[in-house]
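Support request from a user on the community tier.

User writes: "When I paste my structure tokens into the form, the page sometimes reloads and wipes my input. The last time it worked, I copied everything first. Here is what I submitted, just in case something in the input itself triggers the reload:"
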């Protein structure tokens, strides 16, 4: 029996609880952040899973209907596409969260992405229902929370793993922590894992109505400021902030770092290899307080990072190195 499934991009909305209509609209009326319904089409592959509002992955079948949102994705390792690339109603779930568009480029190393047929826009009272309708707002005046900033050289560079460990260590020391992802393409999994490891609250750009942060910089800054100010109003001791992939990619990473300003108390660069550390330092002028990720997988890699950049590295996924990481946080954040 075909099902109606709500992707995790809908978690900020009331769509799972309140009625709505579905109506096809001409493409001239489509916009980023529109909630839309797609019908899963064959052939099925191992990637045919949708992330639910809870973060749980749910296998889907051809004929199932999924509510997601139009957006853009520019991933270096998986795929790039946009709702602007949709032709004849054929589209893809560009993330399992229900980020809908059409891939124009997709990694040959992955299975076939989820394909869908555009079934229509989510409507109420004759008007489109959009992510921005449910965006978090705040009138708190400033953002002033000490922040541990996690920056990556690419996807899969260890940012989320590092954030999880940082959440666990600071919460174990008795501090209240908020986990945040400020850039990227919508998935609930990453910030949900922060909460599972000690963060009292978690947020990301979806909370302010963005399906991904591939949007004009002015629009991104206007959306993210209320999120930061809302977090500040809750007065956590620290914010652990993942800034997505490299700040040089079109996800507004540089703007995110600029918005954090002087609140950044510690910068951890998660790198895919030692030479990637060099690339980000030279291209972006970033001076990390610590290097983590695959670039620190072995003692030889750590030594090469030191030789090439002078930066200190810790292999955080090695349980024997956790005390060293804890000491680093205590020292860097002035907790001793």
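"...and here is what came back when it finally went through:"
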């Amino acid at each position: 029996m075909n099902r109606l499934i709500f992707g995790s991009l809908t978690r900020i909305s009331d769509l799972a609880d309140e009625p709505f209509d579905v109506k096809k609209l001409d493409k001239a009326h489509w916009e980023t952040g529109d909630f839309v319904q797609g019908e899963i089409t064959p052939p099925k592959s191992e990637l045919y899973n949708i992330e639910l509002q809870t973060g749980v992955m749910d296998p889907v079948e051809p004929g199932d209907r999924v509510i997601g949102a139009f957006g853009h994705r520019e991933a270096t390792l998986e795929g790039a596409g946009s709702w602007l690339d949709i032709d004849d109603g054929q589209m893809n779930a560009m993330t399992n969260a229900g980020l809908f568009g059409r891939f124009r480029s997709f990694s040959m190393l992955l299975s076939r992405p989820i394909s869908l047929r555009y079934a229509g826009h989510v409507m109420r009272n004759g008007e489109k229902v959009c992510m921005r309708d449910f965006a978090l707002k705040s009138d708190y005046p400033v953002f002033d929370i000490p922040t541990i900033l996690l920056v990556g050289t690419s996807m899969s560079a260890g940012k989320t793993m590092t954030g999880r460990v940082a959440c666990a260590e600071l919460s174990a020391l008795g501090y209240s922590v908020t986990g945040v992802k400020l850039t990227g393409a919508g998935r609930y999994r990453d910030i949900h894992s922060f909460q599972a490891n000690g963060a009292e609250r978690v947020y990301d750009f979806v909370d302010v109505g963005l399906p991904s942060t591939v949007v004009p910089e002015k629009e991104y800054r206007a959306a993210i400021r209320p999120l930061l100010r809302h977090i500040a109003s809750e007065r956590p001791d620290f914010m652990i902030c993942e800034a997505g992939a490299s700040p040089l990619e079109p996800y507004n990473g540089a703007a995110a770092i600029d918005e954090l300003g002087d609140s950044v108390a510690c910068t951890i660069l998660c790198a895919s290899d030692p030479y990637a550390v060099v690339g980000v330092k030279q291209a972006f002028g970033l001076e990390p307080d610590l290097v983590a990720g695959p670039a620190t997988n072995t003692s030889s890699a750590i030594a090469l990072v030191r030789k090439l950049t002078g930066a200190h590295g810790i292999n955080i996924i090695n349980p024997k190195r956790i005390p060293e990481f804890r000491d680093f946080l205590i020292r860097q954040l002035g907790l001793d």
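Agent notes: The reload is a front-end session timeout and is unrelated to the input. Residues 147-332 form a domain with the Rossmann fold fold (CATH 3.40.50.300). The first strand starts at residue 4 and ends at 6. Escalated to web team.
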